[in-house]
């Protein structure tokens, strides 16, 4: 890999969004470089791809990757939300019949392998350290701990995830619409559980559990940052939440929590002030990050990479409107998501005086006010 290489497009970030962008640019014959900080994929939270995302997987030519033994099909949701009653949703009666529970590391390794087959250049284990505008394009400095290289490009794609590092550097603000955080862990089970997703609301937030194969469970508790205990009390906090949750207690059968395995991460809704500008665009979580209750993050990452790359290819071929059409599509999807999110949280009325659920209501009122103000501008 030579220094001072020039590309049509540089994509920074090799998660689902950056990799979908790379695969689509390759299909459109646009020369690109993809820069990803991690040498090999790392474990990321979130594994559910809902059934209605299957047409997108097929459109991207990715559904065949789901046949790998590391991934699993899932057939429904079991939830306790809004009342003590358990609600079972079966996908088999629906159009797309099942979703997928991904092994995220393996999925990203599969996407990387596909991207490496294309014509683009993959700077794996290189972190983007500096970014500046030069003429009508960009200069990017990347480093892998030993070597520093300078690359230039006519167009730039920010696929760096929630941090939206490149956009921040370009002075584009991220609006954090929510201070929700997740405590996540993997748990070994003594008996297999049915292949479905389990959701349960509690006074302080909500649980999510997804089986990963026969005897492993991906478990997450979502709450507000201000309600989180200090690190050393996380196990006690989770046990208390579990004891207040009959569905999760039944599922986990008092399996042990391992403090070292617990990870804390932001998991609220956020969006950039603008997801594109002169010769750049943002895709995936960098542009719009979704509350995991929607199971929409990976799908949106793949979709925004796909549609964003097509818009970029059209722009490169002289279409002046393509990026604003991309913005319109993404923004409409985001507004539809916000509506559904409010309806969903609004169904839980048992603890409306509790800070977590009060915060859901306040958010809804705040966002409706902002939307009304924007309409009257
Ligand atoms: C707790 C939790 C649960 C979730 N559950 C689900 C779920 O069930 N279903 C679902 O669909 N979604 C879920 N999500 C969301 C989903 O994980 C994300 O939406 C998805 O990973 C976004 O993909 P991305 O490519 O935009 O970003 P990421 O996957 O974050 O990828 C960004 C990449 O950029 C690289 N990078 C960052 N900075 C640099 C730099 N300076 N230089 C080079 N590389 C850089 C990183 O190494 C990383 O690989 C969940 C999220 C959380 C937090």
What count of helical segments does DSSP give? 9
Main CATH class of the largest domain: Alpha Beta
Low-confidence stretches: none
Bound molecules: flavin-adenine dinucleotide
Number of domains: 2
CATH architecture of the largest domain: 3-Layer(bba) Sandwich
Q: State the secondary-structure class.
A: alpha+beta
Mean pLDDT: 93
Radius of gyration: 21 Å
Which homologous superfamily in CATH is the superfamily of the largest domain?
Answer: FAD/NAD(P)-binding domain
Strand content: 25-35%
Helix content: 25-40%
Give the quaternary arrangement of the chains.
single chain
Query: Helix and strand string, N-terminal first?
Result: EHEEHEEEEHEEEEHEEEEEHHEEEEEHHH
> What spatial form do the alpha-carbon principal axes imply?
globular
Q: What does this 3D model show about the protein?
A:
The chain is an alpha+beta fold and 377 residues long. The protein has two domains: 5-47 and 102-177 and 268-332, 3-Layer(bba) Sandwich (FAD/NAD(P)-binding domain); 180-266, 2-Layer Sandwich (D-Amino Acid Oxidase, Chain A, domain 2), CATH 3.30.9.100. The protein is built from nine helices and 21 strands. The model has no long low-confidence stretch (mean pLDDT 93). The strands form four sheets. Strands 1, 2, 8, 9, 10, 11, 19 and 20 form an eight-stranded mixed β-sheet that branches. A seven-stranded mixed β-sheet has the order 6-5-14-15-16-13-17. Flavin-adenine dinucleotide binds at residues 12-18, 35-38, 44-48, 127-128, 159-161, 165, 182, 184, 220, 265, 267, 284-286, 292, 295-299, 301.
């Amino acid at each position: 890999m030579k220094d001072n290489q020039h590309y049509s497009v540089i994509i920074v970030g090799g998660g689902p969004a950056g990799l979908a962008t790379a695969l689509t640019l390759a299909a459109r014959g646009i020369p690109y470089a993809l820069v990803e900080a991690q040498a090999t994929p790392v474990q990321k939270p979130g594994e559910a791809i809902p059934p209605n995302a299957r047409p997108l997987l097929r459109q991207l030519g990715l559904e065949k990757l789901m046949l790998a033994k590391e991934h699993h099909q899932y057939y429904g949701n079991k939830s306790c939300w809004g009342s003590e009653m358990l609600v079972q949703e079966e996908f088999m009666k629906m159009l797309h019949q099942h979703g997928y529970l991904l092994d995220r590391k393996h999925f990203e390794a599969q996407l990387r392998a596909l991207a490496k087959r294309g014509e683009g250049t993959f700077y794996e284990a290189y972190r983007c350290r500096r970014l500046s505008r030069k003429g009508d394009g960009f200069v990017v400095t990347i480093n892998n701990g030993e070597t520093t290289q300078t690359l230039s490009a006519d167009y730039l794609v920010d696929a760096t995830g929630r941090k939206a590092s490149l956009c921040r550097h370009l002075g584009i603000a991220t609006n954090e619409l929510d201070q929700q955080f997740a405590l996540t862990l993997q748990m070994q089970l003594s008996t297999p559980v049915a292949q479905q997703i389990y959701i349960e609301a509690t006074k302080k937030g909500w649980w999510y559990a997804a089986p990963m194969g026969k005897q492993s469970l991906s478990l997450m508790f979502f709450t507000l940052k201000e309600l989180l205990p200090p690190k050393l009390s996380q196990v006690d906090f989770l046990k208390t939440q579990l004891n207040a949750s009959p569905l999760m207690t039944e599922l986990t059968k008092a399996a042990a929590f391992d403090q070292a395995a617990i990870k804390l991460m932001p998991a609220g809704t956020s969006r950039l002030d603008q997801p594109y500008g002169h010769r750049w665009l943002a895709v995936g979580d960098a542009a719009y990050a979704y509350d995991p209750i929607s199971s929409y993050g990976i799908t949106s990452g793949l979709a925004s990479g796909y549609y964003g790359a097509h818009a970029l290819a059209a722009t490169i071929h002289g279409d002046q409107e393509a990026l604003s059409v991309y913005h319109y599509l993404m923004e409409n999807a985001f507004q539809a998501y916000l509506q559904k999110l409010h309806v969903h949280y609004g169904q839980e009325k048992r603890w409306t005086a509790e800070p977590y659920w009060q915060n859901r209501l306040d958010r809804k009122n705040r966002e409706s006010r902002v939307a009304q103000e924007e309409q009257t501008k």
